[in-house]
Design goal:
- The protein has 176 residues and is α/β, with parallel strands linked by helices.
- It has a single domain, classed as Alpha-Beta Complex (Maf protein), CATH 3.90.950.20.
- Helix content is 40%, strand content 18%.
- The protein has a five-stranded mixed beta sheet, sandwiched between helices.
- The chain starts with 5 loop residues before the first helix and ends in a 15-residue tail after the last helix.
């Protein structure tokens, strides 16, 4: 099975969330709003996209997404713990079912010892937060688009893994 393109992935994500009665919010650093903009391009996205913040500057990760300053000082803004905290913070602050946290290095230069293409993608449902470490190829545009693509596809995967609470006969369950 091939990976859908960005518009197709956004459409699929919207439809999957809509079918479940769920929503998503995103705290975006390296993608600078591209996740939300891509999802918002889908007609009817207001039913599933709660909102998002661009937290390009490190201090905004704290003030807008609720990432603890001590975590940022200890782990840095481009890290697994930061991606997890971004996803958890934005989910909570936007009252969404799902939170997406995207942080990384789009390039062309390394940042804090991370090569261009290094991305940390956090996905949180309020019970479980998963962080994916990615190394994406290409220039700034390709890395940013690839990060959004991965976020949508991996969130679709999480949705497929978990049953919709309260729907009989789906054979699945939410992982605690």
């Amino acid at each position: 099975m091939s990976t859908p393109g960005l518009p197709e992935a956004a459409q699929q994500l919207h439809e999957a969330l809509l079918a479940r009665g769920e929503t998503v919010a995103a705290a975006e650093s390296l993608t600078a709003g591209l996740f939300c903009a891509t999802l918002a391009a889908v007609p009817g996205a207001s039913a599933t996209l709660r909102g998002g913040v661009v937290v390009y500057a490190t201090d905004l990760k704290t003030t807008l997404a609720g990432v603890a300053p001590a975590l940022l000082a200890a782990s840095g803004p481009v890290s697994e713990p930061s991606a997890a905290a971004l996803a958890e913070g934005i989910r909570s602050r936007c009252a969404a079912t799902w939170g997406v946290g995207l942080t990384g290095v789009a390039g062309p230069d390394p940042v804090d010892g991370h090569a261009p293409g290094r991305v940390y993608l956090g996905l949180s449902d309020g019970l479980v937060t998963v962080v994916h470490e990615l190394d994406l190829p290409g220039d700034r545009g390709a890395v940013r688009a690839g990060a959004v693509q991965e976020a949508m596809v991996r969130l679709l995967g999480r949705l497929a893994e978990h049953a919709v609470p309260g729907k009989p006969g789906d054979g699945g369950s939410v992982t605690p």
